């Protein structure tokens, strides 16, 4: 009897989209630094604090000039001719509604920080001796002014530089959504090698540590709020473990669903809750005082904008320690967060114009932050001076509890405190899930699909590192290291700006380039036939007939003539709508394409009722429209004869050859090749 065949054993296939060149060095560095901070927290913190203090005292001017350049550059771009350039193809449309877009970038960019510092920062400025030299009026105005300064346009300009650069190169050049892509004009194909991997390793580690420290401090505030509400008996490490476990699981679940579902839904819910809480405090607090102080504070900010921007406090030595601990620390903190926030903003900004992107990212979140700081910070100061007898300012050094102590002076304080905890929880989740999404994106070099276990990997790693550092007291050391890395990254951001300028210059020249001077103008022959075409309005059938006869005949003759000159061409035909195109394929640069398709347009009611056009029977007319392979806007060619159409194709081919022959256009015209490398 023959032996029966043995069943084949299924091999377990370990699927991953992680790239070793980025993931392995990043994990080694993350684990190594975390272990040092856990086992030697005091020594590590002491050493890093010395380095941080040296940078802040001696090199603070680098931060001042860098952030100033960012602000000036973005304002220039917004009002320049480049503002109309779209982040994507010229016909791209935004993927998210305006409200969803603003909600997501706001949640990723500020999130927990606003809840943590909304009351604490104005109160700490108010209680500081630096602002207490000329009475309480000066204290209040300066507390508000510097809160606006630290959370306003300058902070968002830092995020906008990264977000704009990455979204431009990702969607306009079709490069990977990665920091390496921002260097393409400078490094070209080297971004796909070790240089690019090094840049992504830096971005991944910076993102991980920035989120870890922020989430660590966020957990402490959530624990404090739950303790205030008597939900947990104390703020011990055990409850912090439980909080982290629950929130990270929620973050992982949200990240698995992607940007279009979990992150977007949570961001919209949270921004709605934030607005409700904001209006509640405004209405039950000192409303008239708050509206007046916001109005005056906004004017004060605008009036002092440039002096704040360039201020180094060099003539006020007594305020220098405050300057290092607040303004310079903030600039370093926003810069250290910019890889993560910038990548996420880029991910959700496809289809926006540069002008729309800059105006929205700089102005809308800044105005909201100003109003938030006024409503919460100025309310707390007002209560401290009029009802609390200084008890709130006495708590200025305890920001974890200050928000909840402030709410006790309002009606429905328990409900308000529950709402604050809920908002912080959702901000925690949206920060973590978008961070997980970004880290996986960097580690996979923008892979289109990744197994779900990778999302769990980053979420669990975030939770473990945060908890170990919380327990060992190493969060401050990690925060210091993150702030130190902001110095070299500020130089990298300036290089991003240089790359963007170079690319935008070429982009503008590419789309504004007209035909060469040798192009033959439109002929005056056949003018009687043209006149008939000008005053006639076509139906779909007549335009299809024009394409099937005149256009196809012209393209066929061109194809034959190109062949005699050793150039291989293709004729591509399509139905519904009818269109024909002639294509010349290239290995390196974009293919040359000239096509004609049947398009329709609506006619105005005025024209329909005009007696001089008696043949118009419906409010729609059809016409043959030329289009090109590089997304430039096409035009109506129904006036062209066969030979004139051939001449028009040759004009565009002449323009194409002129552009591709110039070395400086290499990075723009090779975007299809770039796409194949991803």
From TrEMBL:
Q: Which domain of life is it from?
A: Bacteria
Write out the entry's keywords from A to Z.
Answer: Cell membrane, Membrane, Transmembrane, Transmembrane helix, Transport
Topologically, how does it sit relative to the membrane?
Multi-pass membrane protein
**Is Transport included in the keywords of this UniProt record?**
yes
**Which molecular function GO terms apply here?**
transmembrane transporter activity
Transmembrane segments annotated in the record for this chain: 21-40, 60-79, 99-119, 148-171, 198-217, 237-259, 271-291, 328-346, 358-383, 409-429, 455-475, 481-504
Chief subcellular location equals membrane
The UniProt entry, under InterPro entries, shows:
BCCT_CS (IPR018093), BCCT_transptr (IPR000060)
Kindly list the places in or outside the cell where this protein is found, as annotated in its UniProt entry: Cell membrane
Tell me which GO cellular component terms the UniProt record holds.
plasma membrane
Is Lyase there in the keyword field?
no
The text of the family note is: Belongs to the BCCT transporter (TC 2.A.15) family.
What protein name applies here? Answer: Choline/carnitine/betaine transporter
């Amino acid at each position: 009897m023959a032996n029966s065949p043995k069943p084949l054993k299924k091999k377990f296939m370990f699927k991953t989209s992680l790239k070793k060149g980025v993931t392995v060095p990043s994990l080694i560095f993350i684990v190594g630094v975390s272990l040092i901070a856990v086992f030697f927290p005091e020594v590590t913190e002491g050493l890093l604090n010395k380095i941080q203090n040296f940078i802040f005292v001696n090199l603070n001017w680098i931060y001042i000039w860098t952030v100033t350049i960012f602000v000036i550059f973005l304002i220039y771009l917004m009002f320049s001719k480049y503002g109309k350039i779209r982040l994507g193809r010229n016909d791209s449309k935004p993927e998210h509604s305006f409200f969803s877009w603003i909600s997501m970038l706001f949640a990723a960019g500020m999130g927990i920080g606003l809840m943590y510092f909304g009351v604490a920062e104005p109160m700490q400025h108010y209680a500081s001796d630096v602002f207490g030299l000329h009475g309480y009026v000066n204290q209040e105005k300066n507390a508000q002014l510097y809160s606006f300064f630290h959370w306003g346009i300058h902070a968002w300009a830092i995020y906008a530089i990264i977000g704009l650069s990455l979204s431009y190169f990702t969607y306009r050049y079709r490069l990977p959504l990665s920091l390496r892509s921002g260097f393409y004009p400078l490094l070209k194909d080297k971004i796909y090698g070790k240089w690019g991997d090094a840049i992504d390793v830096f971005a991944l580690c910076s993102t991980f540590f920035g989120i870890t420290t922020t989430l660590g401090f966020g957990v402490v505030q959530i624990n404090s709020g739950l303790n205030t509400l008597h939900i947990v008996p104390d703020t011990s490490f055990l409850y912090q473990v439980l909080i982290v476990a629950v929130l990270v699981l929620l973050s992982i679940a949200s990240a698995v669903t992607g940007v279009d579902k979990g992150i977007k839904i949570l961001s919209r819910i949270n921004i709605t809750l934030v607005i409700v809480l904001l209006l509640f405090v405004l209405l039950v607090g000192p409303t008239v005082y708050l509206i007046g102080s916001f109005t005056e504070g906004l004017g004060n900010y605008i009036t002092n904008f440039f002096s704040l921007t360039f201020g180094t406090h060099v003539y006020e030595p007594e305020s220098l320690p405050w300057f290092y601990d607040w303004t310079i620390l903030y600039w370093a903190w926003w810069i250290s967060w910019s890889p993560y926030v910038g990548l996420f903003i880029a991910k959700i900004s496809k289809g926006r114009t540069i002008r729309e992107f800059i105006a929205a990212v700089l102005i809308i979140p800044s105005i909201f932050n100003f109003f938030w700081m006024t409503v919460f910070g100025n309310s707390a100061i007002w209560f401290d001076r009029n009802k609390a007898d200084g008890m709130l300012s006495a708590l200025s050094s305890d920001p974890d509890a200050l928000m909840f102590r402030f709410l006790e002076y309002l009606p429905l304080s328990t409900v308000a405190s529950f709402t604050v905890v809920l908002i912080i929880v959702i901000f925690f989740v949206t920060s973590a899930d978008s961070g997980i999404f970004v880290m996986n994106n960097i580690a996979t070099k923008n892979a289109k699909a990744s197994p779900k276990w990778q999302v769990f990997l980053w979420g669990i790693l975030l939770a473990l590192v945060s908890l170990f550092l919380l327990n060992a007291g190493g969060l401050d050391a990690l925060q210091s290291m993150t702030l130190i890395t902001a110095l070299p990254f500020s130089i990298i951001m300036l290089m991003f700006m240089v790359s963007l300028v170079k690319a935008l210059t070429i982009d503008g020249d590419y789309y504004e380039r007209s035909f060469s001077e040798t192009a033959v103008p439109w002929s005056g022959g056949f003018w009687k036939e043209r006149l008939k075409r000008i005053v006639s309005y076509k139906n779909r059938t007549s335009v299809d007939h024009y394409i099937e006869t005149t256009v196809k005949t012209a393209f066929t003759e061109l194809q034959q003539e190109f062949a005699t000159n050793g150039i291989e061409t293709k004729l591509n035909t399509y139905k519904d709508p009818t269109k024909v195109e002639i294509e010349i394929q290239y290995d390196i640069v974009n293919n040359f394409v000239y096509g004609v398709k049947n398009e329709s347009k609506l006619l105005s009611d005025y024209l329909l009722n005009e007696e001089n056009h008696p043949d118009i029977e419906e409010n729609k007319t059809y016409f043959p429209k030329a289009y090109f392979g590089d997304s430039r806007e096409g035009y109506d060619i129904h006036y062209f004869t066969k030979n004139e159409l051939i001449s028009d194709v040759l004009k565009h081919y002449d323009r194409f050859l002129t552009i591709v022959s110039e070395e400086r256009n290499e990075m723009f015209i090779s975007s299809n090749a770039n796409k194949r490398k991803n």
